[in-house]
Amino acid sequence: MHSDKHFLISTISVQENAVKNILFQASTMLLRLAVFKIFSFLAFKMNAYTSFLMFTEDTIQKLFFLTARPPLRHSLLVLAFAVAFASSGLYDTLLWALDSPGYITKSTTVDVSASLLSSQLLADPLYNVFISNPEKNLDLVDIDQAISGGLFKSGFNFSLPGVVAASSKGIAPATQPFNLTGPRIWLDNEGLSVSVNGSGMSFCPPVTVDANSQAWRCAINNTNAYDMLVAAIGQPRIFWNADRSDILLPNRKDNPWASLGTGGDTAAMKQVFTVTKGNRRHTFLETVLKVSMLAFHPAMLDAAEVTDLIRRTWAPDPTKPIDATTQLLVDHVLEAQANGTSFTNGAIMKQDNYSIYTATIGLFNPLQPGSDLPEYAILQTTGISLTLLRSETLVNHVVPAEPCPYYYTNFATGGKVRSTNCYKSTGNQTGARFLGQIDASSMVILSDILGDGSTSMSATAVNQTGLDWYLNHTAHIDGLLVSRAFILGGDPTGVEIELKTNEAALSYLQVILIVIPLFFTVASLVLMMRDKAGLYRSSFMCAVSAATKMHGISSKNVGYMRPPPLITPVLEGGHIKLLTPGGGMLGNVGVHMVMPYDEPVTEPFLDKT
């Protein structure tokens, strides 16, 4: 079946549609010639010379011939020729109709250039991409189209292969003790550093475990649980120095993570952001995975469902039975649920000098302001990774978007500054100055793929098929997102795109149909030459010229005239005469008139009945 489809699909490039048109027209001309020669051969076999002459007449003359009641077989011959010849003229239309699709798409990989961006990039591309799966069919999710869409102008055919050249990364020694700062990615000697702002750590101070990690485990009151749930998960914190820091918050105006990142949803988010101080710009990739399970009071989460969810999202190997450490977490969650309290547990670790990872698990019975009792309980697990991708030195220093008497920062999305936090600045303003710029260059949010966080069933809260799909595609998503981010908010040098061009193409079926008329034409010509069809191989003019020995043409050698004689019509005495070269004249010789020729016209077919 696959080979049959390949036979019908356009796969053979011919570059341009003009070439296709020439091939189709040439094939049509050959087919019409073959039809003419085949019917001429039939007329020869039937000794139907008048029918043969009708082949070259127009439709009206053919109708007059048919209404004159010639022999039936002669009429049928002319009628069949008229139908076949007219139909053969539509052969090129048939060939065009077989286009499937009529072109092939070729890709050329090129590096993104400044000229390409200036001519083809949209004026204000979206920095965020939202991928949803409401049909619950992962085959319908096209991550390439989603992440590469909305970048360039309509008609610019391209794709992002997700390939970015390796870049240098600039780090610096820590300027403060690890037990005071926790894991950070240090960027300069003045304390510029980046980490993840974990909401759990605000209510449960972490304890240093070793030189690279900290952990926490606390029972928390339900009022604090509400405050933790309304904060979006995965907020990078940028420390400009030992005293000043900013948090990269999702903008509620245009960023769905402002809502999906809070509460009990199951979703994933990836974002590429840059931190620029002076003329040094650092690019980071953050990945957030949030899984939730919910039960409305007085119902409680089933112990088996809690165990299954924690095993699949927290255990070192989810395919194996639950280990003792993970089982201890399950016990803490179930104990908090039985007590009607909230619980948080987590760890943050520095995997190397360029990356940080944090994981949390918590049971929350949020008590909203003004309420006496919690309305629901949420079990939530999260995983957040933060990685330094690139460090670069810019030609110019970053410029503040506006003057301000306080410590302040530019906030940008998609490479364009949207606002500052000038009048939100708090604390001591001694030495106030512009600190730098934070740019959420590009981000992607995945919803309805990993599961439904509004259920109390573990299998639904985190769909294993969706989770496996996400884990299998996460590296490709990273590559696409980084490419998009560098095009929008960074230096596109080293980012590859595939330019796609359409070339006219033929299918194997079309090629065969183009060649077939050539074989018919050759076969018909061979038939005519083999059987010495005489006058049926040439036009009426050739026949007349040969029969009258005009211009030295022999009646025994009817064929093409080289050069053809010049026949001139003249009007004499009210009659039109056809003058031939040498002063002769064409005329009709009657039965009792003397023929001025010394050699009669003889053709072997004249005696046929």
Describe what is shown at a glance.
33% of the residues lie in helices and 27% in strands. The protein is an alpha+beta fold and 609 residues long.
List the helices and strands and how they pair.
Elements: H1 2-8, E1 12-15, H2 17-46, H3 49-54, H4 59-67, H5 72-88, H6 91-97, E2 103-111, H7 114-120, E3 128-132, H8 143-148, E4 158-159, H9 178-181, E5 185-186, E6 193-197, H10 200-203, E7 207-210, E8 213-220, H11 222-229, E9 235-239, E10 245-247, H12 257-260, E11 267-277, E12 280-296, H13 303-314, H14 324-339, E13 342-352, E14 355-364, E15 376-393, E16 408-413, E17 416-420, E18 434-447, H15 458-461, H16 464-489, E19 496-506, H17 508-530, H18 540-547, E20 568-572, E21 575-580, E22 584-586
Parallel strand pairs: 3-18, 16-18
Antiparallel strand pairs: 1-19, 2-19, 4-19, 5-6, 6-9, 7-8, 8-13, 9-10, 11-12, 11-18, 12-15, 13-14, 14-15, 16-17, 20-21, 21-22
